[in-house]
Every structure is written in C-alpha cells, then in structure tokens.
Specification:
single chain, alpha+beta, Four Helix Bundle (Hemerythrin (Met), subunit A), paralog of FGE (formylglycine-generating enzyme), 2 domains, 4-stranded mixed beta sheet, 3-stranded antiparallel beta sheet, 10 helices
C-alpha cells in the first residue's frame, strides 16, 4: 500500500475514482427535498458542492497555467471544458449566501458532467510513469490536491447529513475509543511540520518545518470520552461562569443550554445523544463529539487540565506508540491557526491564508474523514464556535 501522499500512476488514478464513488454514495440516496435543504451556515447546496468538486479538479489539473490579477483573483489560461463558469463554482468568488440563489445543474445534468471531468483529469495523468522525484515543481501536485480536496468534501457531506438530521451514511457507526493511560512525554527540541526533504504532497500550511522547544508534559492517550464529559455536565459545568473563558461569552449567551447541543434527557432521565437522524442512549465509550473549542476549554478548567498545543499534539503523535488518534474525532488544540515562520502560500492560495488569525487549529481525524486524510502533520482548522463538525478534544496536565 502506497503512502497516501505519495500516490502516483495507476494507484493515484484508482484513488481519484474511489474518492468520487464515495462522494456520490454520500448523496445519491437523498430525496429531492433532502437534495435542496434551506440555507444553513456550515453546509452548501448539494448540487453546488458536487459541481464545485468537479470544477476544482478541472481548474487545477486541466486549465493551467494559472495567474493572479491585480486584485489577487486567480485565473486559468484555458477555458472551462466541463464545469463552469468560474464565477459560479469557485468558492472564493461566490459567497455562501449566493450559492443558494444561483441556478444550479440538475441531478441529471450533473451525472455526465462529473464523469467527463473525472475521466479527463485521469487521462492527464501519466499512468505508466515512474514515481516522481522530490524535485520542484511536483508534477503530480494538482492531481493530489484534487484528491484530498474531494476527500474533504466527502467529510463535509457527512457533517451536512448529521446537521440536517438525515440518516447516517451506509456503514457508518458510532466510533468507540480504546482504553489507555496518560502518556508522559519528555521535553525536547521537536521538528514540527513538513520537512523539505520529505517526498510527496504537503499542504502549504504544513511548511516550512520549524523547531519548537517543548517542556515535559503529560497528555491523554485518547480523546475524551462521552462518559468523561458527562461528569462535567452533571457537575453543573455549563452553569458555572468560572469555567467559561471570556472569549466564549457571546456563544454562551446564544446557547443557554446546560449540556451539549446534541444531548438531551430521555423519558427515563438518562442521557441521549443525537446520531444523524436518531436519538440514541449516550454511549460512554464514544468520544465526546460535536463540541466547540469553548466547551473543550471549559471542561479543562473544571478538570484542572488544559488543551494541548498543536505542537505538543504533533510531537506526541509522531513519537509516542501509545498515542491513539484518528478515526474518532478531530481534536481541538489551544493553538490559533497561524502560519509557520517563512510560510509561502501554495498555488491554491485561498486554502490557508484567508483563515489565519480567526480559526482554531484541530488535529487528528474523525470517523467520517477518509483514511488518506489522517496524517500526524495535517492541520485542520475551524472557527472555535463550530459544533457541527465531528470535533472533540484530549487534555494535558497543568
């Protein structure tokens, strides 16, 4: 099995086809009403998102070279062949609210469009070529970028289904956490990020690698479980102002609930959790999920712990065999999403740069993330108030 970021040739072509198949499986069962839900922050119209996925791959793989105009807007030298216009399907050009107002391709129109785009992009791939060297520019950069971009949107379709109370995708079950004891990590000078000498694809925000001095720390070996978080809830954590950082004040005023938004008391008084379109008994072995960064920080204040920094998380993931991560929840860290020293935006300059400063960094990977997306150096990022994504956290000793 090839390391996902080094896929090339027929393996990369197969991954592109598999990602598209997964994308379609996540939406093909939706009814006409589910296909066109009312506007909601955090999700996109299904037709727009499918067309955007195809547009993105075509734009970067088939339509180069690319350039920026005086206003910083990206343009491609070649015109759209299968999916266009750019003004409609480029997420940097069409505001979220406008995506609900513009006319979109029908389901019948999208099907052949997606097939033609995918096959043309695969035809542009040198299937029989040897593995590329580590030279710049990477000849497979845009194929790999398109693959990971579609994988990300596959997860977005999962959290859309969850947010709109649609049924869980086929084969998706509540994740369970393994057991594990806290890990004592000795202090060190850690290399964080993607080294230039490493082969394969890297996201621009992972580069350049940097050296970070870490003191000794103790970190949980797994994300926090629902069973652990319920102790905070039942101790009145949501009602105790001392546990809520000042930055959480606006969110707390909007959410007067005394428990997570996707929990409730059942008829017998037991806790239940929302799982897509069902209310299920709270599973104490499941990760605490659909929590925002403020809830994570409040728990830490109550428990006398803290959130790990992104660097602490990455070093533990790369150095500690007992550190369990991925396939459960994304994990909030204490770190703002910011550029590493010497950062240079990649060709897709809207991937990271616009979000520095007002987003929080998450690490790991959720049950809904494609396994290809699980990498110890991958930096996810969301606004800290988001509860729709599959996010939880782990803690570090003070």
């Amino acid at each position: 099995m090839f390391e996902a970021r080094q896929l090339f040739g027929v393996e990369l072509a197969a991954a592109l086809r598999e990602s598209r198949q997964r994308t379609l499986l996540l939406v093909n069962d939706l009814s006409p009403a589910q296909w066109s839900p009312p506007r909601q922050i955090g999700i996109n119209p299904v037709a727009w998102e499918l067309a955007h996925i195809a547009w993105f791959a075509e734009f970067w793989i088939l339509r180069g070279p690319h350039h920026c105009d005086a206003q910083g807007q990206l343009h491609a030298a070649q015109p759209a062949c299968f999916v266009g216009p750019d003004a409609l399907f480029d997420s940097a050009r069409l505001a979220h609210t406008r995506r609900w107002a513009e006319a979109m391709p029908t389901r019948a129109e999208l099907a052949p469009m997606l097939v033609r785009q995918l096959e043309a992009c695969i035809a542009a791939l040198a299937l029989g070529a040897p593995e590329p060297s580590n030279a710049e520019p990477d000849p497979l950069y845009f194929h790999r970028l398109a693959l990971f971009h579609e994988d990300m949107h596959g997860e977005a379709f999962c959290w859309m289904r969850s947010a709109l109370c649609y049924p869980a995708p086929v084969g998706v079950a509540v994740p369970h956490l393994p057991e594990g004891e806290p890990l004592a990590v000795p202090g060190t000078e850690a290399c964080i990020g993607w080294r230039d000498a490493q082969p394969g694809f890297a996201f621009d925000n992972e580069r350049p690698a940097m050296s970070v001095r870490l003191a000794d720390y103790e970190i949980d070996s797994t994300p926090l479980s629902a069973g652990e978080f319920v102790r905070f809830v039942e101790a009145g954590g949501y009602d105790t102002a001392a546990y809520w950082p000042l930055e959480a004040g606006v969110w707390r005023k909007q959410s007067a609930c005394s428990h997570p938004q996707r929990w409730r008391r059942g008829p017998g008084g037991d806790w239940q959790m929302r799982w897509f379109d069902q209310w299920l008994p709270l599973d104490s072995a499941a990760p605490a999920m659909h929590l925002n960064a403020f809830e994570a920080q409040a728990y830490c204040l109550w428990a006398g712990r803290r959130l790990p920094s992104a660097s602490e998380w990455e070093y533990a993931a790369t150095s500690q065999p007992g550190f369990q991560w991925g396939h459960s929840v994304w994990e909030w860290t204490s770190s703002a999403f910011a550029p590493y020293p010497g950062f240079t935006a990649g060709p897709y300059h809207a991937y990271s740069q616009p979000w520095f400063g007002n987003h929080r960094e998450l690490r790991g990977g959720a049950f809904a993330s494609h396994a290809r997306m699980h990498h110890p150096r991958y930096r996810n990022f969301f606004e800290p108030h988001r509860t729709d994504v599959f996010a939880g956290f782990r803690t570090v000793a003070l």
